[in-house]
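JOB MANIFEST
job_type = single_chain_structure
chain_count = 1
residues = 106
[input]
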Amino acid sequence: MIIDEHRQWLINFYKQREWYQYSPFIRLNFLIEEVGELAQTVRAIELGRDHPGETSQTQTQLHEHLKEELADVLDQVLILSDKYQLDVDELIVQSETKLKKRFHED
C-alpha cells in the first residue's frame, strides 16, 4: 500500500534529520501547528483572506496550498502513529468499523 511506503520513507527522512526523536507530546504540537496552517488555507478558500501584507492567490494556488497543508497534517499523523507503533491499515479499518457501527452501515 502506498501509504505504508510513504510512512517508512517519512520515518527515515525524519531520522536522518534528527527530527524523529521528539516525543509524541512534542509531535502533537507539530500536528496542531499544521492543522492551524490548514485552517488558514481553508479559510482563504472559503471566505477569502483580507490581511494587510498578504498577496492574493489564485484558486489554483490556493488549491495547491491546500494539498500541501493536508499532506503536512497527514505526515504528522503518520509519524505520531509510528511513535505509538500503530499500523496505519488498522487505523483505517478502525475508522470504517466505528462509523459503520455508529450509523448502522454494513
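[summary]
The chain has a mean pLDDT of 94.
Residues 59-83 form the longest helix (25 residues).
exit_status = 0
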